[in-house]
């Protein structure tokens, strides 16, 4: 059974009644809930727990880590970020949501600024499926429509994704590569744009479907990590 | 000096006064003109010429072929299509414009239906640059805005492009991968979306800049075609 | 349950006792056998059956088509090739093996010559895993070693694969991109190099594992084909 | 005129007479020499200079940075690495050679361990061209052969390259993705494998040709860096 840890900064929920009304159990609670219903083994972790809730024991028992952060990226300790990065390279799947684009963990895995344009103006968003073969888009029609969301616009400063699955249209004139996969080491990563804290985006069933699909997609393949370093002395491999 | 052949179906120009007013010398004439000013050696060819103007002699002396077609894709002879395809595989660059997405030559090179959504409703289009490193986007700002264009929407049934340079936003709610490169054999291909015949799109200086850049990008590398077939007998290559 | 059809030209088996001794039930029979043991619903089809065994009824009930051909690519009827291509674009998975690189179906889906170098010299092959995240490499170590195989060498004239999973080393000095995925329309394609008819390659358990994994990978996603053509008239989508 | 800075650790040259005999002016001196002959404006910089020779003034006046390091990656100051990374994201081209795969700058740009297999056994290497369209392969035949080199083998722990141009064959049974491009921010990166310090690899004319070609390829496109951050308030863009 795939073991998922949903990590959330959990600060907006403490400060902003709009957010805590939409997500009474926190964004992490909402995500954990719909993943549990899909028969995953789910736990949550938040910034203010010791080691941000990401102890070695937790990380070692996590197949897929979901990440939501925004206000306090800088408070995440570098040492924890390094451990998470190593776990991804060792095969743990990672799903980065919305403002997590600016998290330390996403930035060290991408190598770029991960910067973008944004605007809070209650705009309509349409996430168009541009890769209809992809299992992350299973069960989704031609697009997902969200009545109101924060706008994210290009240029999105990421490496060209290995696969581009969704591209968003925004009412105000921007587009955004909003569903992207990346492989790093033995790990698979999925970035998914929607989820501004003041909208009920994670209650949307299609958004939930995408995240459920993504868990299945990024979970580790059953392989040992390759061997690196000084290789065997030259065999007489070619001598017949 | 790079030798460019601009191919145009040249039918709308004969039938529709709106088109012939915008493009008195035809779409091919307009494109040839701004390419000539960039110091390329340019000729034109059209559907109704013998062999569609694409004789072996013309093809052999073409480094980059620009393609615009719409009404009469089915009238292009299969034999000519095969010759063009072979020239692309041998290294000739190919720039496919707008409704050329449904040309035989583009479809045989892609292997897919190349189908898409469309709507003629005088919509605003914004072509956002999503790859700021790319020489095809040189001299272009963050986006190109076209006041009125035909809408093309996803899903665009092409293989995942090797490089995605532009993505279009349309007023009516759609997005489209509108600037894409592909490599086939020794040849480079650039698909560029804008250019519906009833709008003065090819008079837009930024659109012209992109096409000029593209000619430079898809022109053949200075290499011989690789050798295929039965290889040399096994050398005693590994015996030191 | 995934429904697999294993297609084989089945000519070498009739002519060459070396081949029929290695594969008494034909190459298709051998492949069908190990797929059946993996709980797939498997049937076979061969060139000399009516419609090459690929009637519309068979194609409509096939989730994944495996293809082995060599001597008689030209005997496969263009009409059947078109139907198979359409089925791939509609979502059917396709696994092309070894000399199938020159099959009509692979060439129309790639748009290139699919040419390569080759040599029959009983050379050792090592297929190195270059994408350790990929489910097609599940259960495989760092490489698969085949004591004797036909050599295939670069340049392999295919579009850049969407994912490169294996690259082969050959004793005589060549390398080859030997495990490649491609997406076309709604369909996923896997090309896998090994399997010259005079070697017992399809009895190798690791080769079998890769093909089993590939069936799982290329089987259709559960989606409806996107809608193409003239789109809805412009909604007043942006009017809040 | 393109301004190139060739950076070298320059330690082997001080310690090992084998190296200083092959490269009397250092590896940086040898590379600078053949680039100068190609009409580039070239300077060099080395580890033991103040700020490793990479002052802000030098970096700001560098279009393409070439990097060779091996023994002392850890001695490169993090602050300098950050500045170089920022310059790449701002558009400076970067060419990383051989053991530079383990440099801090390459690792932060890749986000992975960049680990690999290696063996020093005077093995023959053949770098096969797998992308014949690429300008970095201009003037190169089917492969480059180096009589003796250090072996690097897969798995090479990098993100899937944007373009794979060369793949190496080694006598002892390994293969390696030895010529790879990556885009990060506004910058283009080329990793090129050959160049172990005890072999005269950078005196090889084909290796020189590749590096010359690469300088041309990774030099910055003529564009302004995109605008990030809070975007303009929602225009009434859609209101016709």
Structure in words:
The structure is a homotetramer of 240-residue chains. Chain A has helices at 12-15, 17-22, 26-36, 56-60, 78-89, 104-110, 205-218; strands at residues 3-8, 41-46, 64-68, 93-97, 117-129, 143-153, 163-170, 175-184, 187-192, 229-230. The first copy, chain A, is α/β, with parallel strands linked by helices and 240 residues long. In chain A, strands 2-1-3-4-9-8-7-5-6 form a 9-stranded mixed β-sheet. In chain A, a hairpin with a 4-residue loop joins β7 and β8 (175-184). In chain A, α5 (78-89) packs across α6 (104-110). The longest helix of chain A is centred in the C-terminal third of the chain and has 14 residues, at 205-218. The termini of chain A are far apart. Chain A binds chain D through residues 85, 89, 108-113, 115-119, 121, 123, 151, 153-155, 157, 159-160, 162, 171-174, 182-185, 226-235, 237-238, and chain D through 85, 89, 108-113, 115-119, 121, 123, 151, 153-155, 157, 159-160, 162, 171-174, 182-185, 226-235, 237-238. β5 of chain B pairs parallel with β10 (229-230) of chain C, so a sheet runs across the interface.
